Amino acid sequence: MIMNAYKVAKLGRYLLVVLVFFSGNQAIAQAVIEKRKPDAVVPEEIQTSIFARLKQARPDLEPSNLRYSPMEGLYKMKLDGRVVFVSEDGGFLIAGEMYQVNSGHLVNLQEQDRIKEEKAFAPKRVEMLQAVAEKDLVVYKPTVEQKGYVYIFTDIDCPFCRKLHSQMGAMLDMGIEVRYLAFPRAGINSRSAQKLSTVWCADNRVEMMDRFKSGQDVELAECEVSPVADHYILGKKVGIRGTPAIILESGQIIPGAVTPEMLAKEMGI
């Protein structure tokens, strides 16, 4: 009796599992037997093989965290901090946005991963910021009872930083304490970094910050010791990519200039 195509395919999958199992690689056999779940851990043997192939092509690559993706035939992984996709044999690498097509809408799979990672990292971000001593910050105290505080990575020459700073009075009147850190977008050897150092080395940092933010012509000061470089490095570590970057007490980042009202709403005050 001739078997139909479905039975032949089913028998073929069964034989594949048996062969893999008795070849000594039980972990891979189990992966074949079980239904693949997105985000589930890929057996170490598969990860090692794929990462080795990628390293042969580009030794400078740093692949990590190989997981199953929702799409059959593709794994997802972190590559130099980005979520990318790789074929099961490691022969093809896809570095782009992947969307899952649902009824009535599309779901950006990388964005979902970024949201999960952001939520997971937020407590660590808080810990890193709280380790910065107040003497290394430029702090604006509220004019009323303090209801909360924010950290803001700022740059002197950033127009949106100046726009946000122009609303300082309203933020302070709402009970929001502002804790400035330096983040020269042009790098630590830039003129912007020199301006920030001038602020941090001033006897009155708040007054000096106000002068720079209002566009006054301020003579740059020679400052042997300033925390600007340390702040810049810290900013990179906590995920700052531009200025201004507001960080709430929860560790959530709000990029760009927002109104005091919007900020108060995000803070729950």
Report a brief summary of the structure:
This protein is of the alpha+beta class and 269 residues long. 42% of the residues lie in helices and 19% in strands. The chain has ten helices and eleven strands.
Descriptive keywords:
single chain, 269 residues, alpha+beta, Nuclear Transport Factor 2, Chain: A, Glutaredoxin, 3 domains, five-stranded mixed β-sheet, four-stranded antiparallel β-sheet, 10 helices, 42% helix, elongated
Helices and strands in order:
Blueprint: H1 5-22, H2 26-33, H3 44-57, E1 63-68, E2 74-79, E3 82-87, E4 93-94, E5 99-102, E6 105-108, H4 109-130, E7 138-140, E8 148-154, H5 159-165, H6 168-173, E9 176-182, H7 191-200, H8 205-213, H9 228-237, E10 245-247, E11 253-255, H10 260-267
Parallel strand pairs: 8-9
Antiparallel strand pairs: 1-2, 2-3, 3-4, 5-6, 7-9, 8-10, 10-11
Integer average pLDDT: 86
H/E topology pattern = HHHEEEEEEHEEHHEHHHEEH
Query: Helical content, roughly?
Result: 40-55%
CATH hierarchy: architecture of the largest domain: 3-Layer(aba) Sandwich
CATH class of the largest domain: Alpha Beta
Q: Quick one: biggest sheet?
A: 5 strands, mixed
**Count of the separate structural domains:** 3
Class by helix and strand content? Answer: alpha+beta
CATH superfamily placement of the largest domain: Glutaredoxin
Unreliable runs: 1-26, 28-35
**Which radius of gyration do the C-alpha atoms yield?**
26 Å
